[in-house]
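Researcher: Please generate the 3D structure of the following complex. Treat every line as part of one assembly.
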Amino acid sequence: MTDAEKTIREYTGAKIRIMEVCGTHTHEIFRHGIRKLLPENIELITGPGCPVCVTPVDFIDEALWLAERGITVTTFGDLVRVPGSEKNLAAARSTGAKVKIVYSPLDAVAYAAENPGEQVVFLSVGFETTVPAACLAVEHAKKAGLKNFSLLTANKTMPEAYGILAGSAEAFLYPGHVSVITGTSLYETLKQRGISGVVAGFAAEEIIRAISVIVENFKKGEPFFENCYPNVVKAEGNPAAVRVIERTMTACDSEWRGLGIIPKSGLKLNEAYEAFDARLKFEMPEIKGRANPACRCGEVLRGDCRPYDCPLFGKLCNTENPVGACMVSSEGACSAYFKYGIGK
Ligand code: SF4
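Model: Done. Output below.
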């Protein structure tokens, strides 16, 4: 047994709830069987770290609104299976809507350039990790003088969400990938506000060590932050990625599934790139979606319930027939619990 495992297994103090806010952590924790290592008084909670999961039903309805008007919708694969109020994008495609899967936003720009007779919209969802690629795509489209490319944005940034979620956990397992872009100064600020956590890598021993660091620090009774992924995550982050976001986007209020509207937690195109904003370009009306009332994704994302607490889990809702977003994405909590047979 390693020292880190010993620290975890021998912990007998007050309960520590640790929220992981990265879908990749969620899956790696299951894949390595890390939950089985934990004593009863250390609990891992899955938070809103999956970009597809936190994207609200309104956004899917907006994408459907575009698709139903003959506009070509380009997107990463997961989003086509996320339910809107009435149907998903895959269903719209089966009845003739142009919904194209792409592997990067630049593929969508290339498609627009090759098909000048079509209006092409890329569905831009995701956190600080994926936003720079969408920003580069829109810069590229502007330089190329493309008039038939735009973004429908639902991008999110994590800083404001930590404050909302702080009551749900004693410490965060901060996301390695997002932290590569943002750096770690934010976490020092959160520490001053009494919010604790550590940045963790993705290998089993890195996650176990990060949990043991949380345990050691929690015992001291003071807010803490440690970077447990220092070979990859630097204090300054990735300045080039931050700069491309700053050149093209601006902060906006954003709705998160389960968390509601969080002020300044989203990114939309700035004035210089307004011509590439699909909502403005196509004069989209305000669209309010209606999530399936039986789905408890919102509570799962807040850490208020576990996927197996949902009566549909593993029965009406499974990875073949997902009822909610958290079962669609491979990074979603419900999908992870289902795949690894937890609570079935
Ligand atoms: Fe929603 Fe399905 Fe998860 Fe239930 S199991 S919360 S229906 S995604």
